[in-house]
Batch of 4 targets.
Target 1
Amino acid sequence: MQPRKSKAESACGANFKIAQLLSSKKQSAGLEDLETRSSEQLEPKGNGAWRWQTFPKSIVWKKILIAGGLMLFMISCSSLTRTVLAPPEIPGANYVGDKACYDCHTNISRVFPSSAHARVHLPNAEMVGQTGCESCHGPGSKHVAAGGGRGKFIVNPGKEPNACFQCHLQTHAEFSLPQRHPVIEGRMNCVQCHDPHGSDIFKPAGGLAMARLNESCAGCHREQTRPFVFEHEALREGCTVCHSPHGSINRKMLTESDPNLCLKCHAQNQGPGVASGEIYIGHVSHTAYLRQGTCWSAGCHTAVHGSNVHPRMFY
């Protein structure tokens, strides 16, 4: 008579039988067969034997999705120590505060508190609330130790726009559009149109403000912004009424590429005597003209910025 086995020994024996069955099943089935059995598992019959129990594929995938969802939930709840928007880095340099900049950059330091950029501070810096300059130019200890100088251990956003793009993500995306100002290519910089230190951010350094008519654009686009006998009234509101200043998907950086750009201002309610589908501007039917293209490319109003000859800016 064989001695009676304990529960632990019986459990070990059952586990050994399962391992044997799995091993034999893996040997008899190829890799492809094992993949098809991903929805099966061993189940005891009750008489000491084991059988394969098949489950629907939907249950298996449901379990996988639940497990994946739990993993994503655990990741999202974990704390992050990394920063999303990081200031420029200068190897080996530390933050010295805005007062250290005052000795050399006196005029800029005097007007800088009125700028929107002066409110940008690094919360994790050693000198909390005094790192407005270094938020864009990087830590300045090595720059100060070297006695200053252009480009010496300092970041100049006027030459490298990446420091601006760290915060102005939407503008960075616009400079990647097909029609754009060549800032990324290095032929222009942000400072040509914006004053980063003064109270008016829409003012180029040493120039007039974009908000005050079109003086910012006039520095390069003199032919379009010069005085005309018959002016285009849209220029009174600024170039940005029709043009996107950073970039656009349309040629000439227009906000829209079809006649709707003009019809925003030059549309009118049609009178009771006008047939359906007819478009009148003034007392002239423009229905056939609009089918020929845009107002400025159909051979009509070619002098869109102004004319010295014709009040309707035909030429």
Note: The beta strands are 40-44, 50-54, 179-180, 230-231, 247-248, 280-281, 284-285, 306-307.
Target 2
Amino acid sequence: MGKFEEFRDGGGGFSSRMPPSFVRPGRALLCGLLGAAASLFPRPARAELVVFEDGRVVKAASYRVIGQELEIGLPGGGGYSVDLSRIERIIHDEVMPEPPKLALAAAPAAVAYDLRFDPKRKPLFGSPYDSVIVAEAKRYDVDAAFVSALIRAESNYEPRAISRKGARGLMQLMPATARRLDVRRPFDPASNVRGGVRYLRELLDRYESKPELVLAAYNAGEGAVASYGGVPPYRETIGYVKRILGWWTPSIQAKPVAAGPLGATPASMPVPVASAPLR
């Protein structure tokens, strides 16, 4: 086997090792501009956005999961604890500065791909859970290769993984999300993947099979995608989308179902990143 390169996911803090053979030039077509843009900006101070299931958002200086509670530290000092089941997600509030207006003007719209289940498009990594992925992908009519790439980023195929944010299982479902999706056993691979793929189906329908928007919403939430009108400019989310698209290779694995603006082809189309509002 060849030399391995280490990657780390943006959400749960899991690390893995991947052979460079997985990183082919064609896999960077859709997300090349995304990576180039990310490298232009300095790294700002970090904070966290705690999103409650009722839509309320709290900016936190720190947080930690203690049992079934989330302890939130506030920027001005002090803090409080809440039931973890009330938390929909936690986002790293690390927003890149607004890109130049010329770059924004040249950025094309998101492109839809055929992300329906196709038995010819199989899970990508040969994991012990491929049969589960295929079964649930077929159940909800979702591309199995896309699901497998997301699982790799979320948990590195560790069925009992728990992130520092409290997300659980193969597809890293937060307790509130698991409850909404009727996932009662988040560490059971079949149950977890069923809930996660069901959520992907919801996002695919909402975002008309545009993979970068689906992934951004899975990572940062639909509210963040709506607020920014596209992929939120969170460094974590941009890296997450870029990594999964790089593995999945939509220009090779699936056929586009909509042309881009001004006759642009999906193979040359970068991932659009929304600009950050002035703070």
Note: The CA atoms of residues 159 and 170 lie 5 Å apart.
Target 3
Amino acid sequence: MTSPAANTATPATSATSAAAATAAADRRVPARHPFAAHLRRAAAAERAASHRLWTPGDGPLPSLYLSHGAPMLFEMTDWMTELHSWARALPKPKAVLIVSAHWESAPLSISSRQPSELVYDFGGFDPMYYQMRYDTPAATDLADQVARLMPDTEPVHEHPSRGLDHGAWVPMKIMYPDADIPVLQLSMPTHDPGRLLELGRRLRPLRESGVLVIGSGYMTHGLPFIDWNHLDRVPGWSSDFDAWASDALARGDVDELASFRTRAPGMPYAHPTVEHFTPLFVTLGAATDPTAAPVTAIDGFALGLAKRSLQAA
């Protein structure tokens, strides 16, 4: 019989083992694949200058809203470079809390505290994407922090076997490819902008302890209306919605943004379902001042969809 002590792994040992599993899976990516090249560039950047860790002297980290794309993002060199450069421009967070468009669940829930199997919630892609891994360190401390920030009337339910879905692990794997930062996913319990702003407000203190709070969606997501024969063309509904959102954000007009269903041009084509836009309200709620103009980190279009991504102080 194996003694209990033999089954006990220290956090450092567990983290090292998890990182090794991710690295082993990454080595199976064909050397000529764009993501393999991205990994080589990221490793070279780290060798040239180690990513500086967040310290309290840096002040609160910003909250982010990012357009995340599907696994095909791993084939888009420019977009991967933009995401990784954005991550490197910020101090390296102690942990990441991410709200993804792909986990709509009430009551409010968190993913597993321990590294768990990824959720491969997509279909029709190269088999290599279903073999990718992103085994991050345990997020136990962050899970406890999140639970303490919620009111007694809204306890946080934990799904001990649920891993990160592609709205979380795809951008994280590109931004932080070493998988050495705890990442916890929080469900989106509603699409009501007011309630999501309040949820973000409750999460705001996390930023002061070096946690990066992220809303992950897509600034436009009219997949049924893409012209797959002319992917180089940007549909009017996509460009019009993006321009409207950019203007409202620049003016700090949260009320206008919250009325997107009826006031935004391009609706409902830009968002036939709204789950890729509404994480924005968690991001704004977590900001020190939701009405302050955020900084656009990434703009432009991919497959005709607006990939606008931003950070709020």
Note: The first helix runs from residue 11 to 26.
Target 4
Amino acid sequence: MKKADGLGKKAFYNRSLERALQIVTVFSGERKSLTLAQLSEALELSKATVFRLCTTLVKYGFLRQDQELKQYSLGIKLFELGSIVASSLSLTRIASPHLTELQVDLGKTVFLAVLDDGDLLHLDKREGLRDAITFTSQIGMRRPPYWGMLGQTLLAHLSKEEVDALLGRSPLVVTTKKSFTSKEEFEAALRRIREQGYAVDEGAVIEGVGGVGAPIRDYTGKVVAALGIGFIYSSVGPEELKGLAKRVVATAEAISADAGYTRREPPAQKHA
């Protein structure tokens, strides 16, 4: 039996399958429904060939056919398969090995959080192996949206309107000497975070406890989560802080890449 050593080998090339896949992928957000003639023109295939392939795709649920409008659209089977892919690529599952590696390498407590219904929601936490303190934040715990390096990281990548709405619901509260005392001061901090690519919490919510946070993006480039490490702020010097920030950013970028993100210019947005 001939060894399958490449997709380009003619022995393993299936033209009918290729054409069927071309039909499925020709649909888009702008082209949700297409007639037989439109599919034929887009794929440069005869109507007879397209009709035969579409009939099979409809049979197996990959396409739907509107008999009245004479149009085809993507079928429910693709939604079912997409849901399987989405569940296998869930954020916590993708991030898990990266969090463990960061925890082991740095010996500090590692956090993963998202914004959910106006709150900062902790999705994962790995206790530091060499930490001198124990953090009270636990998986599933909710905090105000601006809370620490994680909240600042997430808010830094929202629009001004979104930040205003969140702070309107959960106003800034002064709890330490390093807390933000005004909205203007907080917005300036968010701008610095966007410019440098990471957040540094000098103890804005818990006296003496700081951290570094970095954004995690999905395949569209949208910031969907924040990765962070926590530590006693006075225990870390300027050079070590830079090194920690570099490592956290690199880990966040690795998680983003595993989630399907390819580095490119983010869409223009009016930030706070």
Note: Strands lie at 33-35, 63-66, 71-74, 109-116, 119-126, 142-143, 199-206, 209-217, 223-232.
